[in-house]
Design a protein that fits this description.
The complex is a heterohexamer, with 3 copies of chain A (312 residues) and 3 copies of chain B (103 residues). Helices cover 79% and strands 0% of the residues of chain A. Chain A is an all-alpha fold. The radius of gyration of chain B is 14 Å and the shape is elongated. The chains are: A mainly alpha (312), B alpha+beta (103). Strand 5 of chain C pairs antiparallel with strand 6 of chain D. The structure holds adenosine monophosphate (3 copies) and sodium ion (3 copies).
Chain lengths: 312, 103, 103, 103, 312, 312
């Protein structure tokens, strides 16, 4: 088993046993800054080496998926889940966007299993982060004359994680592989260790949200498991359609299945104050993140194999 | 500003995610000075442990005149109380150089 | 809870190592809300610079009704004062939505 | 020290760069206990966001007797107010074990 | 001279000269998390490669030492030192347990001198951390019907440093050398540098405790020097008995001689509130830590040579 | 373009667009501790390998420059700039001393352009940090019977950055290249990445000071550009005089041109309270730092080439 998963379990178990283990918030920030920049830089470097003509159609398709996913889940959440409009929109935004931590675990999983994948995947992370936020906010508030587009753009494009991902991407793209090389000591060589520590912390955080699940009942748990599974199928189909490898399809399915817990909560909290942030985080962190990390990713890999017609 | 004489300390404890918006609002109300610390806590909206992301609280303290303090409290109650984790309290303080606060 | 009307602010400054125990005790006493900040300081038990390990202090503030505040103070004095670095103080505050604190 | 009876809370908010000097001065004045937190804020001397270097504020709170509190305020106004970002305020508090503060 | 010692001296001197140098608490936490996890991982990896039949007897013997050391020092502290019961028990716990920082310096010393040692030593760190805490608490409180065993177990086994050491150990053991390899960029390659920064901080902290020594007088200083020396002899004899190499014997002597300043203070503070924490930290940090780091370790090395019969 | 410059721009632009991106102060501290120690260690190692007879004359000349620069700029600031005495002295101290961040960027620039330079340059950083502080304080206060020399020495020699630079230097010098080698995993291999993050943060900080420039008007901007240019000429001439290579001359010119924003502000704030710290930081961080990093260093390189007579 990949050791990073064990770090996640260590954090989870320590917190469930009420250990005093806790990392200072500044360390959590530091680790996530490193993760975001590294993923951005990696994506940018790939961008620099690939012809735009191959990338552009994929990019467009992925962005479209980012807009469509929340539009599909919103009515389900509203009607089937009987969530309030603001909460349904918020959940749709969380699940339509992506979790960078889950992405990193998927990539580590493929590396550990020595499965190849298209190296421009980080680009998709960046592309998928934003559209669902926009859709979610519009679903909650509707488009009226008073819609403050400027504030909307600010909240979606200038959040911390987008700036770091996009910034890393642009820098990587501008300087290319050789330019990024001198930075590898901090960003690439320590990546797996940084991810391990990050997952240790995620385990600690997840435990708190697991215990808040009780309050929200079965429907939330069902959505927390059902939405990622359904989205993973859409992601896997799209990956196959775009001609991605099995590894690439696995990553795209994982991205579709993952739910944001950094960028989206912050943006929705200011833009849609009526939505209950505890509800969406209970789903995203208490159910979907551990599910994806522990069970989902290998599942999406099998799904990708099946869809691609590769014999298992 | 010709504020009533008794200087007040207004303390606001709320979600750190709204810091920027809240400070802009306070400025519009006429708040010239404030002090912020990063805190954590528990209340009606559950525990906010401040360990990551949007989970933290801030504590804003403002020394000001009585009428401004009333305005702040009324404004906060109307704009933020329904949707955000927030408490406020207020007490009498004495200051040196009151013109620093009442102006 | 039918607490006397004057809302009180209770501030407890003590060793961070007892945070978990203390919060459990406060919950049992009926404290529903509190705010914590990480601080450092000096007192009868020397300097607590908060630079590492068990060397730090926390500052807990609780807005509550008068009778609960009395109970808290009596309890802390009896259970913690002899063995831990701790001070407490108490003052009158005014609040909006007092039902948030007195309930 | 035979200080007047009403315990006071003195709060000083100022630049963190003078922490060492200020604490030495306070000790000379007779301050035995204090609590410090790292804060940020805005005032007449602009925004002090506390993000790096000398850009941060500290908040010192001192529980003490009335005459010491007067002395502190007078001293600070005379020595620091003209050249440093600083505010102070003062309020009445009630304490248990007053001998911890008035001695 | 090993540069890490110089980092310790830099911190010590800077603080004694009242420099403004100070590291933020979050950095101290980060460094100690890295140290604890790295040492745990290293130990676990070794565990994975060695037959249990060799390890088990050593493990039992070391655990027994962990229980015996505080039982030996307690009466001395009580009678000779005339410390209060709670303080004697607390000191016995501190000195019976171990200091991870001292261990790391000992290992760095051996590496620097190119002396071989058994690579499963980190396992002993984990084993020695807990027993003395249990003994100390029982010595202070006695065993009565009211003994809250659950709280006792919680305080001893769920403290931060145990969780990280033990967690690292289990992860290292589960994934083995090849599994841990991708983590080496953060955990192993930076280890010496992390230790250097940690010792810089320890120098700063030690200085404060050195200056508090005056308050407690000569007896504390004598115990702060005498206890480690006596314990080192016991540790060295045991190492020889177990057939450890000279390097391994040096490490075991150092572990016996070292006094805890992380796990034990936290556990004793909650479990034995009557004990004065400033007293035990003055001894452990103000005397024993600097003594071991600057003078003790080379001494214990000579001791190990002598006991093993190797000509000096 | 060197990617570290892009990190600076990323921070600058993010802050100017009012993004929520912000790094916790503890991270800023951590990064600057790493930078200072690494630069110190590098300088010390070089010191260990070079004969004192070559170094000593250079060292004396550089120290003299450190005393002369603020003496030259002070009357200009007072008369031409019409600054108050305390502010003129403070600005003279800031510009007479050096910025470690700017130095690191210059070194990265030369590395990126594969230009050789004398490897004992970090020694000059250490030597240039202090003299201007002393001169500045004396210029502001005058020398009277009441001059508290002890406090002055404390403020100048025991500030955080001096202790770390000097400490690193002494350690590097004491243990030499082979002794420092085991520390390279943390200090040297991650250096470029640490510098990149540091510059990201500097971009965020700079943006705040850029926007405070308006308050102080044109004269400050002129001095913020003129002083570095004039000082760079002096530095370049001295470099040439001392027989430094083109790379070394570039670094010395950059050091002369750079303005302190860590050590000097802290020392001056306590020693010269009447000086307005916002004024000197607006100049040093709002103008000179970005100017040097973005435009100055390549310019000083051309200057060094010209002075050395190398055809461009
Ligand atoms: N009674 C109280 N005393 C002190 N702080 C409180 C109290 N109630 C709530 N808080 C703080 O205010 C925040 C928001 O409160 P609430 O809106 O009740 O969730 C909490 O996270 C606490 O930090
Ligand atoms: N007079 C005081 N004013 C403010 N804080 C104090 C005072 N005395 C003690 N403290 C704080 O309370 C903690 C415990 O105090 P003590 O029990 O006196 O050691 C100290 O570490 C300080 O943080
Ligand atoms: N009215 C106020 N209320 C609360 N804090 C203030 C107020 N005015 C100033 N401060 C704090 O005191 C510091 C120094 O204030 P000043 O000397 O006005 O710049 C500021 O950075 C704030 O942290
Ligand atoms: Na998704
Ligand atoms: Na021991
Ligand atoms: Na300069």
């Amino acid at each position: 088993m990949d050791p990073i998963i064990l770090f996640f379990l260590l954090g989870l178990i320590a917190a469930l046993l009420r250990s005093e283990l806790r990392l200072p918030p500044a360390i959590y920030e530091f680790l996530s800054v490193l993760l975001l920049l590294t993923i951005g830089l990696k994506g940018g470097v790939e961008l620099a080496t690939q012809p735009m003509s191959t990338l552009l159609p994929q990019m467009v398709a992925v962005i479209v998926m980012g807009f469509v996913l929340p539009l599909l889940s919103f009515p389900l959440l509203l009607k089937l889940g009987r969530f309030k409009r603001a909460d349904a929109a918020s959940l749709a935004a969380h699940y339509g966007s992506v979790s960078v931590g889950t992405f990193a675990v998927a990539v580590a999983y493929l590396g550990h299993q020595q499965i190849e994948y298209e190296s421009h995947m980080p680009l998709f992370v960046v592309l998928l982060e934003v559209p669902a936020i926009i859709v979610g906010i519009i679903l909650a508030k509707g488009i009226t004359r008073e819609t403050n587009w400027k504030a909307l753009a600010h909240e979606t494009f200038l959040g911390k994680s987008i700036v770091l991902l996009l910034g890393g991407l642009l820098i990587g793209w501008a300087v290319g592989p050789s330019g990024v090389e001198p930075l590898s000591g901090l960003f690439f060589n320590t990546f797996k260790g940084v991810l391990a520590l990050f997952l240790l912390e995620m385990g600690l955080i997840t435990a708190q949200h697991v215990s808040s699940l009780r309050k929200y009942g079965i429907p939330l748990i069902l959505f927390g498991l059902g939405l990622p599974l359904a989205s993973a199928c859409i992601g896997a189909l799209l990956g196959n359609l775009l001609g991605l490898s099995v590894g690439g399809t696995t990553v795209l399915a994982t991205l579709a299945a993952s739910a944001s817990y950094i960028a989206v909560p912050a943006a929705i909290r200011t833009a849609v104050p009526e939505a209950n942030p505890a509800l969406s985080l209970a789903a995203s962190l208490g159910i979907t993140f551990p599910f994806n990390v522990l069970v989902g990713i290998p599942l999406y890999h099998r799904l990708a194999l099946q869809i691609s017609g590769t014999p298992l | 500003m010709s504020d009533k004489k008794q200087p007040k300390l207004v303390v606001i404890i709320t979600e750190s995610v709204i810091e920027t918006t809240l400070l802009t609002d306070l400025e519009v109300l006429g708040v010239k000075g404030f002090t912020i610390s990063d805190v954590r806590g528990r209340g009606h909206r559950g525990t906010r442990a401040g360990e990551w992301g949007i989970d933290g609280n801030i504590r804003i303290e403002i020394v000001c005149g009585e009428s401004l303090s009333d305005q702040i409290l009324a404004f906060l109650e109307q704009k933020y109380y329904d949707n955000y984790a927030m408490i406020t309290y207020c007490s009498d303080v004495s200051v040196i150089r009151p013109e620093k606060f009442l102006g």
